[in-house]
Design a protein that fits this description.
Two copies of one chain form a homodimer. With 211 residues, chain A is an alpha/beta fold. Chain A has one domain (2-209): P-loop containing nucleotide triphosphate hydrolases (Rossmann fold, 3-Layer(aba) Sandwich), CATH 3.40.50.300. Helix content of chain A is 39%, strand content 18%. Chain A has eight helices and seven strands, in the order αβαβαβαββααβαβα. Chain A has a seven-stranded parallel beta sheet, with helices on both faces. In chain A, strand 2, helix 3 (64-70) and strand 3 form a beta-alpha-beta unit. In chain A, helix 1 runs parallel beside helix 4 (89-97) and helix 2 crosses helix 8 (196-209). The radius of gyration of chain A is 16 Å and the shape is globular. The termini of chain A are far apart. The interface between A and B is medium-sized, with 31 and 31 residues. The complex binds guanosine-5'-triphosphate (2 copies), magnesium ion (2 copies) and zinc ion (ZN) (2 copies). One guanosine-5'-triphosphate sits between chains B (30, 32-38, 65, 113, 157-158, 160-161, 189-191) and A (136-137, 143, 165-166).
């Protein structure tokens, strides 16, 4: 439909601009409170010296996420989408204009908290990363197959809470595999730091492959 | 826009049909994994003898929620919305057709796991109920003001996990109050049963007021 076609044209322009500037870009998609910002706080800490990382944070309202991330990097911009349910390529283009792309190796877009609508909107990223969390229940991949199909990487956050919640990790992994065999899955905790090294290695490799 | 106008016409027909049948209806809106189904499992158990309760469960894919609820009542129907992000009035009308409304006092619609898109779509309900959970972080009301403004009742689920998560209940309540002073808020746990009596009382009252 027309809105999507227009979006994809702008997304392609974003993609071109990012590649011209040598910036790798990921689009992080997950439920409200799955721990996207917490993960990015840890990521900025860990990668800070190796890679120059910028963040574009999308939310309906508030600048709380950008405020949290600003403690770790000056390269942060908040987009408020208002009564919308996903970032679009035009908003990302505007966000990119207020960042110094020449100073960055990696741009992480933290999409609006929503497992569904962001999946269908190209922003110009290299990879969509889908994030689940252990407190949401183990059936979320089965209920959100389009995200599993679209993502280049899946994350399971909050694994530190597994002892406290009825989450069947085996079933979760099987459901992921039956939708998309072989898709990379990293199990981690933004609070304890478990799995963050694997995540950072993945990010570094992506930047080296697509500088 | 046209889609919304068509939806609202069907929603009004649903509303009329429900009132003709003497069925009170709520539209339960919350993030993926906030505990909607778990709450309804407990609710069906507790209300089972006083009120005849039916559930219409919406998900992109799977019948897992309907399967869970079928253990507690025969009055359950699952709607799979596919690549959509919210139930619409037409889908609810179809769901209502496969329920025996004459046998029901209360119909609970469990909307697709999504804090945003369902807010704008009238389904024919008497009240929209917004559900947050303690594992999502205390900033969700501030980030989702339209849900707070649209809801007739707000729930905070998973309060049993408060000792394990950095959730500031005072800040949460203040944010709710500054968006909408005096909106009812029930803090509960679908796992321990805390607060469920208050929730069931609210439901009973609603059914008595709008039989
Ligand atoms: N136990 C535990 N809690 C976590 C973890 N990651 C995040 N949290 C908590 O989860 C809540 C939400 O974290 P956020 O980082 O705000 O989540 P988010 O996905 O950015 O939320 P939105 O941007 O609003 O969609 C906070 O209370 C965090 O402390 C984790 O790995 N383990
Ligand atoms: N500790 C705790 N866990 C809960 C509570 N309520 C639900 N859960 C857990 O949270 C996870 C998700 O519960 P569901 O009932 O499937 O959540 P939902 O909102 O129906 O999920 P969707 O329909 O997929 O959006 C499950 O692992 C539940 O056991 C609660 O009050 N306390
Ligand atoms: Mg965030
Ligand atoms: Mg459910
Ligand atoms: Zn949407
Ligand atoms: Zn939507």
């Amino acid at each position: 439909e027309n809105v999507l076609k227009l979006n994809d044209e702008v997304a392609q322009q974003n993609r071109h601009q990012l590649r011209e500037a040598g910036v790798t870009c990921i689009n992080l998609i997950g439920s409200p409170g799955s721990g996207k910002t917490a993960l990015l706080e840890r990521t900025l800490e860990m990668l800070g010296s190796d890679l120059a990382v910028g963040v574009l944070a999308g939310d309906m309202a508030t600048t709380r996420d950008a405020n949290r991330l600003a403690a770790f990097t000056p390269h942060v911009v908040q987009i408020n989408v208002g009564k919308s349910c996903h970032l679009d390529a035009n908003q990302v283009r505007q966000g990119m204009n207020s960042l110094d792309l020449t100073a960055l190796d990696l741009l992480i877009i933290e999409n609006v908290g929503n497992l569904i609508c962001p999946v269908g909107f190209d922003l110009g990223q290299d990879v969509k990363v889908g994030m689940f969390s252990a407190t949401e229940g183990d059936d979320k991949p089965a209920k959100h197959p389009y995200l599993v199909l679209e993502a280049g990487l899946l994350l399971l956050n909050k694994i530190d809470l597994l002892p406290h919640v009825p989450f069947d990790v085996t079933r979760f992994r099987e459901d992921v595999g039956s939708i998309r065999e072989g898709i990379p899955l990293i199990e981690l905790s933004a609070v304890t730091g478990d799995g963050l090294d694997v995540w950072c290695t993945w990010l570094r490799r992506l930047c080296n492959e697509r500088p």
